[in-house]
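Thread: Modeling a multi-component assembly for a lab meeting

Hi all, long-time lurker, first post. My supervisor asked me to bring a structural picture of a complex we are working on to next week's group meeting, and I have zero experience with this. I have the sequence lines for every component (874 residues in total). Could someone generate the structure of the whole assembly? Inputs are pasted exactly as I received them:
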Amino acid sequence: MSILKVDNLTKFFGGLAAVYELSFSVEAREILGLIGPNGAGKTTVFNLITGVFAPSRGRVVFADEEITGQRPYAINRKGIARIFQATRHFANFTVRDNLETGRHCRTRSGLWSALFHTQLARREQREGEERAEEIMEFLNLAGYRDELAKNIPQAMQRRLDIGIALATEPVLLLLDEPAAGMNPEETYQLMEVIRRIQEREISVFLIEHDMQMIMDICGRIVVLNYGKKIAEGAPESIQNDPRVIEAYLGSEDFNRVRIT
Amino acid sequence: MLIQQLANGIVLGSTYGLMAIGLTILFGILNIINLAHGEIYMLGAFVAYFLVVLWGVNFFFALVVATLAMGLVGVVAERLVFRPLRDKDEINYFIVSVGLLTFLENLGLLFWGPEPRSMALPQASQTIRIGEVIITVQRLYTVLIAVGVIIGLHFFIKHSRMGKAMRAMEQDREAALTVGVEIDEVSSFTFFLGSALAGTAGALMGSLFIVNPVMGFGPLLKAFVIVIFGGLGSVLGAIVGGLILGMTEVLASSYISSAYQDAFAFLILILVLSFKPTGLFGKR
Amino acid sequence: MESGEPHMSLSARKFCIGCGFGVLLIALPFLVKDYPLHLINISGIWIILALSVGLLQGYVGEISMGHAAFYGIGAYASVLLTMKGGLSFWFSLPLSALVTTFFGFLIGLVSLRLRGPYFAICTLGFGEIIRLLFVNWREMSGGPDGVTGIPAPHPIYLPFGGTLAFGSKRANYYLIYGLVALTIGVMYRIIHSRTGKAFMALREDHTYAESIGINVMRYKRLAFTVSTFFAGIGGCLYAHYEHFISPYSFTTGQSFDLVIMVIVGGMGTLIGPVIGAILLTLVPELLHAIKDYRMVIYGMMLMLVIIYLPHGLVGVWQAMRNSFSKSSRV
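Re: Modeling a multi-component assembly
Sure thing. I ran the full set together rather than chain by chain. Output:
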């Protein structure tokens, strides 16, 4: 059963097609990989799914509901969360505040509750703190609880990004190059984290350049080149697909993995 | 009658255009929105006024001095006020320029008082006739000078080393740095140029109308309307927008009560901001 | 705990200081003479206005350069309601605040689609348009000559006999600072709530905030609405305290004053606008010699603060505290 369906998705910037007639789906509880040479349009696909841009043509359907062109906050509330290609969060907030803010869309207390410090406000505050603790445990960030996000190590900041996305309680998590800049040790730990996320029944859609990681944890992979899908399938078939090899011709990432 | 009004509109429009060009190059090249631009315009008017009235200097000479003096003021302002904020968020430039505006305008009021003064140039009362249009000599000079300045500016930006550096920085700051463009140099010069243009506009307007310390705010806002309408960073947009605003203002004053004239400009500003924030020719 | 520790715990000491301060605030009208009390009252009104700008600027991150128009609307609305409508001040206070909020909402619909300097310029434009309306729409505002003879807040008749009259500066002190306390209380609550977190998220990174489910436009509008509500309250108080208003009280200059108060005091805090308002109201009055230089000094201060003390005076105080606590740890 697919939770996300992308149908004929097309996006033109000026005269250039960043994404062209792209169709695929993300199945429930799978880890789907999205790979392609630089500039293939991968982040644009994420931006189209999460509502940062509206597509020129095509549809995005999430859990049987059409979400094409809706605003990012509405799409997030429906259950899709993402991290960005560059590390991005609230740098001047503490780790804890970042995670509590992430839970915003799952709470309701508004101005009235704020002014009168209602039970609802207090309950949601407490739940937010508990949830933040839980996520910090899950991601091993508890030690940085009261540190400002900008002061913690880079790899931990990346985990924080994922943690905030998890705080929004998504059904589908979009990860845009989460392992960028990580050493092999950190990458391995990240892979564990992603597997644990999958165990929590959250589907993961993953953009990565680290081929080792992609081949290891993804159940299926979609390959993009110049905005078009050129292959789709299990890691073994992708590795040997001539079109994929041609797209990456000479690329060190791909060849390294193939030899292993 | 209409053509007379259009002629008057062109006179106004040319000084508005000069001022708007100054503002727009600051934004296009340095990403700085300088609200104190109007105060430099005002100071330019005062410099010219004092030279003409107190020392009996020829107006054209006073104009040149005012232009150069304001260019210098711009360089000093850049060095002391804007450059320290270079690595911070761009909104800080905006806020600091509010401080500079407040400082300069009230300094002017303190030194010179709010009474309007007039340069009382003889050329401002001599008229000549061109076809159907009757225009004062000073107004004619204003248009000619503005056109001359714009042409000179065009050649400068196109062919000089500094002009090329400025254009490089406007297009892609990072790339410009890698090929050896010096930010400090370009910043100083851009401020020199922009402020000199404001000074010219101020001296010209001061010669046509009156001079007082609060004369800068209205033209500043109009320059904003022009710059946003014509496109932030676009010199062509500033010129075209300036002419259009000058002419609309003159035409509107016959149909809309003068009290609400300024409101009209603001309304246009708000409409443009709401619907096409990048303006007619702009790219941001 | 070491031997030789202080007699009282730190929190007990803070409580005592707080109580002492509170008693001082309550007794203040009886401790100072008439003119200083007048200045204190005026500062109180400016505190409310500075806080209204400060909420938007310090917590959502948008600078409003036309806020004087809003307290102008509050002032003129209250004048119309009491002098032409015959209403008691106590009804016109909340009503004029609501009128201001209504216009704030409308202006917000247009302006809040813009960000940063564009938002600021748009609000400046609206501020000027409204000022021109104040000057030219004589039937509503009395024109450039303004309105005189604005009544003081109407007396309240107590159930057990006696009246609370508001003719005196002392009575107005309690009214004004009562509302100051209300304003601070409300803003404190908002800031320390889910709503406040959303505001600060907007200030930090509004695109990212949207990606984690925060409806950016909605919260911007909410902040703008709350801000204009308190501006309306400030305007109403101003009218009935000064007994005279004119369009010259509500110019872009005053809007800039508020921005300067918030920045000099310290953006992003509640105490910053309070300090800024008190400082920029009291100091020039107390130093008669520099009265004429007031605006020149404000301009200079704004430039210096932005360049050298970006967190304002509150930032300076915090920095000093940090260095003291560091040295005591050694």
